[in-house]
Design goal:
The protein has 377 residues and is α+β, with helices and mostly antiparallel strands. It is built from 9 helices and 19 strands.
Length: 377
């Protein structure tokens, strides 16, 4: 852990640069977090949390920090009672946390086996078959003519809550790239978890499969404990669930050969998660084509401060941004300050009133006084 005691903003020992623009506290704490989210080396992760603008710091450098430990008290930022907090990690640990470094989830294979938690998810490519009546427990196909055969990709989520199992279906919005919408309301199977062992035992006996393995198939969509259980390959035993499809409901086999399985640990893009690393510019501006595409409300590929303020106030945009993991240069490194901030001296559609030379120099003095990157090591 790194801790920097705050400098005084007033009196003989005050740092004049911190008084610029109304006054900002420079008390800072950086905590290194080490935890396990899964099994084996890929389940061991490290990340950092940063707490800036503290007027008091209650912890010491290299001190172990435990849950609910008081780190300090909120100070000032530009004359306002406020603080800054962020969570960061390097590329290697991002890959461990999310399962990938950028882009969408790979739909050509199942999700991770060594890190599994939360809701379960299923990718159904076009051509998935749905039946109106519930098939027999050990049948690989339904009876009669299918009620529906999908023409586009569908994404099924299986969520457990208070013993119940809730199934939801999503599909991509054809008009908005990367946006996925729910089809109908959740289908709730009451007491599913309470009846799961009995259902697994019955189905296992009919398919001559170990009941513990069948339990995992019904709970996780696949066998997770492959070190101690015999895996159930896709297509070897059915997993029939009633779900929504466009304009209807039906039964689909979630263990069919073409279907891929994931969990929340895979950060599915259809659940809103986005890994954005397409900004190649070294400054602090957002020049990511992906993010700018979301914010271009009129589609003219030009951006004004008025347009951005309006778009960023929309609930749908805020929800999308809340699940975006973005890569950008740290704010707290002195050596790169001018590279990152010289753009604020030039007028543009986004900056109608740039800083003059004196204002920019004061700005750099203030940021320099707050930086800690080299000091923290």
């Amino acid at each position: 852990m790194f801790a920097r005691k705050p400098s005084s903003l007033t009196g003989e020992n005050a740092k004049p640069d911190l008084a610029i623009n109304g006054g900002s506290s420079d008390g800072c704490v950086v905590i290194k977090h080490s935890t396990e989210i899964g099994e084996g080396p890929e389940g061991q992760v490290e990340y950092y949390s940063i707490y800036m603008h503290l007027k008091q710091v209650f912890v010491q450098k290299n001190q172990p920090v435990y849950r609910k430990t008081e780190l300090g008290s909120v100070g000032q930022c530009n004359g306002n009672n406020a603080m800054h907090m962020e969570i960061i990690c390097d590329d290697a640990n991002l890959k461990k946390l999310v399962g990938r470094e950028e882009g969408d989830l790979d739909l050509s294979k199942d999700g991770r086996m060594d890190v599994v938690y939360g809701d379960m998810h299923f990718y159904l490519p076009a051509g998935a078959t749905f039946y109106g009546a519930q098939p027999s427990a050990n049948s690989q196909t339904g009876a009669g003519t299918p009620a529906y055969i999908s023409t586009t990709s569908l994404f099924i989520s299986m969520r457990f809550e208070k013993g119940n199992c809730k199934m939801s279906t999503r599909q991509e919005n054809p008009e908005i790239l990367g946006e996925y919408t729910c089809i109908g309301n959740e289908i709730i199977e009451t007491d599913y978890e309470y009846n799961l062992y009995k259902a697994a035992t019955t189905l296992a006996n009919r398919n001559e499969i170990a009941s513990s393995a069948m339990y995992e198939l019904l709970r996780f969509g696949r066998v997770i404990n492959i070190d101690n259980e015999t895996a159930i390959p896709a297509g070897a035993a059915p997993h029939w669930r009633r779900v929504n499809y466009p304009d209807g409901q039906g039964w689909v086999n979630l263990n069919a050969v073409s279907i891929k399985k994931y969990s929340d640990a895979d950060f599915p893009h259809w659940m809103g998660w986005n890994l954005i690393a397409d900004d190649a510019t070294p400054d602090s501006q957002c020049n990511s084509p992906t993010l700018l595409g979301w914010l271009d409300s009129d589609g003219d590929k030009k951006y004004t401060s008025k347009e951005l303020v309006q778009v960023l106030g929309q609930d749908k945009v805020k929800e999308r941004l809340s699940r975006s993991i973005c890569k950008f240069p740290t704010e707290w490194e002195v050596a790169t300050l001018n590279t990152r901030y010289e753009w604020i001296k030039t007028e543009s559609d986004l900056l109608e009133t740039p800083l003059d030379t004196d204002q920019y120099e004061n700005f750099i003095k203030l940021i320099t006084a707050l930086c800690f990157w080299a000091e923290a090591g």
